[in-house]
Structures are given as structure tokens and as C-alpha cells.
Amino acid sequence: MRQLFHFSALTLGAFLVAGMGSTPAPEPMPLACDVLTSLPADKLVAQDLTYQTVQDHETNGIQMSMCSALGADDLPVVTMLLRHDGSDAEPQPVDAQREAMIKSLAETFGQDPTASFPNVGEAALWIAEIKQLTVWDQSGHVMFTLTAPEDLALRIANEIVANLP
């Protein structure tokens, strides 16, 4: 439950950092479960997975979807939140979005989170306390979080970024 609260805080923070402008939006993005099921799972996870859509909605051109890949024990192996800003608005620069997320997490935790900055996408943020990797790409129009052990999250993130539309 605590992890879900932190995940919700990240979701809210992601929405709050969008700005206005006129840069064209990227191509349409598949939903989170479609992204996860398209990955070469045998190279990423050594078990059969089932996929469960947790959330899927669009408001004003901003699409949010969330998917959990469940293992044989029906527990999440990885959960993905995907935000695609297909609106006419220009998001804040990716570094500003990352800094806003760190600030939001510090407020949520009551202290600065343990953060590192992996080299994936245009900007990335790993938060050890909640085992969550956030990646920004396509000038901030695409943001996704992966909740999983760090090595798995990084393998999946690199695969996703390499195959974004």
C-alpha cells in the first residue's frame, strides 16, 4: 500500500510539470500493457508473466496507462506507468521534470530520497527506497516509470527507449 501511495505521488508530480508551447507531439504511443507485452520477455524475465491493466485514461491529449506484469504467484514482477503527452502543449524540459519529481518525492518522504541518474532516455531517475525508475524521452512528451528491482528496470527501460515510436 505504501508503494502504491508513492507511485500515486509520482503520477501526480508527472502531471504537474507539463507546460505550454508549440513543439509538435510525437507519434501515438501504445498502452503500457502493449509496451510490456511487446518486449522480448525471455531476455528480460526468466518466467511466464500475465499482464493486468491497472489504469488507462486520456484527458486533453495526455494519455496515462498503467500495467502490472504478474509472476506465477500473482505478485507484480514489474509495474509500468506510461504518460504520453500528445497535446499541443510543450512539456517542461526533461531536467526540470526530473527535478520537480525529486522535490515531490522529498515532500512525500519528508526527506530527500536516495536518487541516482542512470543513462537511459533523455533523463532518468532511480529511487532506491521504492525501487522505481522514471525515464523521460521525446523532449519530455514521453515519461514512464518502472517499479521493479534496479537491474530489471534498467534492462526493460533500455529496451523500451530503443523501440519507442
Please identify, by name, the CATH architecture: 3-Layer(aba) Sandwich
Oligomer: single chain
CATH class: Alpha Beta
Tally of individual helices: 5
Helix content: 25-40%
CATH topology: Protein Transport Mog1p, Chain A
User: Largest sheet, order of strands side by side?
Assistant: 1-2-3-7-6-5-4
Largest sheet: 7 strands, antiparallel
Ranges where pLDDT stays below 50 over 5 or more residues in a row are 1-25
Order of helices and strands: HHHEEEHEEEEH
How many beta-strand runs?
A: 7
Query: Could you tell me the radius of gyration in angstroms?
Result: 15 Å
End-to-end Cα distance: 33 Å
Briefly note the structural class of the backbone. Answer: alpha+beta
Provide an overview of this structure.
Keywords: Signal. With 165 residues, this protein is an alpha+beta fold. It has a single domain (2-162), classed as Protein Transport Mog1p, Chain A, CATH 3.40.1000. It is 33% helix and 29% strand. The chain has five helices and seven strands. A seven-stranded antiparallel beta sheet has the order 1-2-3-7-6-5-4, sandwiched between helices. β2 and β3 (76-85) form a beta hairpin. α1 packs antiparallel against α4. The longest helix has 16 residues, at 94-109. The radius of gyration is 15 Å and the shape is globular. 36% of the residues are buried. Mean pLDDT is 83; it is low at 1-25.
